[in-house]
Amino acid sequence: MRILISGAGPAGLALANCLLDVGLTPVVVERAPALRTAGYAVGLHLGGWEVAERLGLIDALKARAISIQRADYRDAQGRRLFSYNYRHLAAACDDRMLVIMRDALQEVLVERLAGRVPIRYGTTITALADEGEAVEVELSDGARERFDLVVAADGYRSGVRELHFGPHSAFLKPLGYRSAAWRMPSSREMDCDYAAFMDIDLQAGLYRVGDGTISTLFCWRDDDTSRVPPEMRLTQIAGRFSDWPTLIADTFRHGVDWTNGFFDTICQVNAPEWSRGRVVLVGDAAHCMTFLSGQGTSTAVVGAHVLASELASRPLEDALAAYEARLRPKVSRLMKQSEQIGGHYVPRSRLGLAVQSWIIPALMRPPLVRLMARKMESSSLSIA
After folding, report:
1. How far, CA to CA in Å, does 296 sit from each of 69, 70, 151, 283, 345?
2. For the chain, what percentages of helix, strand and coil (3-state, to nearest 5) are there?
3. CA 217, 220, 225: angle at the middle one, nearest 5?
4. Mean pLDDT of 345-356
5. Dist. CA 140–CA 144, nearest whole Å
6. 49, 164, 297, 364: which could form a disulfide with 96 (CB 3.0–4.6 Å)?
7. How far apart are CA 251 and CA 254, in angstroms?
8. pTM of the model
9. CATH number at residue 295
10. What is the pLDDT of residues 96-135, one digit of tens each?
11. Is 329 inside a domain boundary?
């Protein structure tokens, strides 16, 4: 079976590895000219951890993981609201979770491929036609090729989904927030592993990566979904955060290379069908639940594993139906949870700030942290 994967992010690269393990060798195309270095910290846990174990990647991932123990939350004036130890949650999950930069996860997945899967960088799918027996694909380099299956793993603004399933507006559901993230050299010492600063409708977070850099994550309430050109993005951020503590304000005073950064409206993807004919959606292209859930990457990796296992054991049409049937019920519940979390992540009122300052530290202490871990496990996707 000839399989074309569009997108060399976590979903596409995880799928390429899983397909190799069941005897299928795909081709990957990726818009970027090289492996992307952009992105923020992502979590890999429970079901995603299971897939990483099966791929033999745990040691490599642990070696590149971000060490997060103490997390501090402060208000917009820098006054400490509360702290917690992330290790308590990890221990309650039997240490089957880690935090890693997105580009580091991708590097580990590419290294495991060891050149066995061709990755064509700087290449996109510009047209496709499902002819029933195969999909005729036209690529941006002018090549025309036929594949038995095309996989859209190219993110929540999937170009393949737009070509085959319909316009973005039919699938994207804005949640009323914007976010921005980038990596920068560490110019100031942090006295914790993760520092979050909160105010009404605003939150900024800094991860100490461990290689002399800091990963930023800004989030603010904004119902405007229009595209913001790169030259205007820092103006939007500075207008909201410039009078915050120096640790935050310094992060955007020296400019940002947006080719290696992220700035967009926070949207969920609600796709009524994950496959149509010989084209299938995976990861954020099928079910973006946003970073607010903390489960997007693990869900994408589990989805890749499930799709590969179904393709190896059933005829194509049956495999695609089984893939969706196995995953959609829990994915739908996770999507609802993610939407609800937004109101807590970026509180709307002083009362919301006060409630968050009480609830989070309480949940991160025994015995409640064990209850939260069990709830996470029951709601997370499994490869079983």
Report:
1. 22, 23, 18, 8, 16
2. 40, 25, 35
3. 110
4. 82
5. 9
6. 49
7. 7
8. 0.92
9. 3.50.50.60
10. 889 999 999 999 999 999 999 999 999 999 999 999 999 9
11. yes
